[in-house]
Amino acid sequence: MNCKTKLSTEIPQVSSEFSNNEYFSITWHFTTFKYFIILTLFALFITTYLHPTDVYAQEVKVTVGADVLVADSLHLLENKQLGIVTNHSAILSNGTHLVDTLVRLPNVKVTTLFGPEHGIRGNAPDGHSIKDGVDSKTGLPVYSLYGKVRKPTKEMLENIDILIFDIQDIGARFYTYISTLHYTLIAAAENNIPIIVLDRPNPINGVTVDGPIRTEEFKSFVAIAPIPIQHGMTIGELAIMFNEEYWLGNGLKANLTIIKMNGWNREYFFDDCKLPWIAPSPNMPNLETAVVYPGMCLIEGVNVSEGRGTYSPFLTFGAPFINSDSLLLELEEFNNSGIELSAISFTPKSIPNMSTYPKYNNIECNGIEIKVVDKEKINALRFGIEVLYSIHKLYPNKFEFRKNWLDKLFGNKNLTEMLKNNSNPNEIFETWANELKDFKQLRKKYLLY
Prior knowledge:
By secondary structure, this protein is α/β, with parallel strands linked by helices. The protein has 13 helices and ten strands. The chain has two domains: 207 residues, Uncharacterised protein PF07075, DUF1343 (Rossmann fold, 3-Layer(aba) Sandwich); 130 residues, Aspartate Aminotransferase, domain 1 (Alpha-Beta Complex). The protein has a seven-stranded mixed sheet. Strands 8-10-9 form a three-stranded antiparallel sheet. Helix 5 crosses helix 6, helix 7 packs across helix 9 and helix 8 packs across helix 9.
C-alpha cells in the first residue's frame, strides 16, 4: 500500500478583482498550510512508528549504570562467562534490555540468568513463588531466587566468571529486590566470584531517610538489613554498605564493583531523571505509587485493603467496616502535605499477573483515595502510621493485626504495641529518632553521589 500523501500545489482560480497583494496573500497562506500538513504528518509518523524510548532517550538526563557499562566498561567483561541477576527493569536508554545487548557481543558470553520476585519478565503477582525455567527470548537457563531458593547455589554458579546485578529498586526496606541483592552478594563471596552492581536511581529521592532500624529479631526477606524503612540510598550504595559493614555474615566480603550513574542528583525523583518509567513490579505502576509506598505498605499488616485488586494499589485503601467520611475527618487532624484525600468505594478483584487473592476479594470496601499533588512535601511513612492510628481509633473492635506481619514490615514490635495502647502518632515517631541519627551518620560513608 502506498502511504504517501499527494498534496496539490495548484493555486485555485481567483477573480481578476483581486490585487497582486491579495493574490500573494492567498498563495502564502496556502503554502504555509501545505507545510503545516507535511510537518504534522511527519510528527505523527515519529510518535506512532518509533519506539517510545527512542524518542524519550533524546531527553535523558541520567545515564544509568547499565549504559555506562556498555559505553565505557566492557573491558571488565571481555572473555568472561556471565551470570546476570535481573528482571524486565534492566533497560538501557536505547530501549533494549541489558541481557539482549550483552548476548550480542562477540567477546562476552552470558551463560545464566537469575530472576527475583515477580520473575525475569516481572509479571508474576506479589508473593508467588517463581519456578526455574528458560528465557523465551534468549534460550538461556533462568534460576529463580524467589521460591525455595533465595541465594544462588554453587551448582547454579558453575560456568560463571562474573556476576552482574541490575534491577530497579523502589527505595523502601521491604521491597524484596534489595534482599535478593543481599543474598547474591553472599553467594558471590562464598564462591569467590566477582560481582558488578549496575546502579540505578532511587526513584523516591536519595535524601529522605525515615523510620525505625530493623532489629535482629525481625530479620526477614522483607527486612533483610538493619536500615530504616525509607533508606534514601541507591542499589549500588546499599551493596557497598552490606559488604563493608559485614552484614553478609560469617565475616564474608564480596569482590564488589559498582558501575555508577552519570548525572544523578540525590534530590531527584524518578521523573527528574527523564527516564521512562518501567513498573518494577506489577503493583508499582507509576511514580505516585512509589512515593506513598513506604507508608502505605504497612497496611498489608492489618485487615484493611491496601488497594491490591484494583489498578491503583497503595493509592487506594479501605475495608467494609470503614465509613469514608468519618475517616476523612479523622485524617484531617494531621498535616497531609503533598496529597489530597477523597472518599471512595471499591471492590477488590482478582487481577491476573497483578493480584490473585486480594483482601476482601469481590467484597465492597469503603475508604480513601490518595492523589499526589506535590511529591516533595509528602512524608509517606508518617502518613501511613497516621492512617493505621485513625482506623484503629475509629474501629477498635473491628481492627485486626495479621499475625506478626506488621512487626516484620515495621522492623520491631513498637508500632503494634503502641497502636494497641492508643499512643498518638507523634509518640510513635519519637521511638526511632535517636537510632535514625546514628544511621544517617553511618550512611554518609557509603554515598556515591
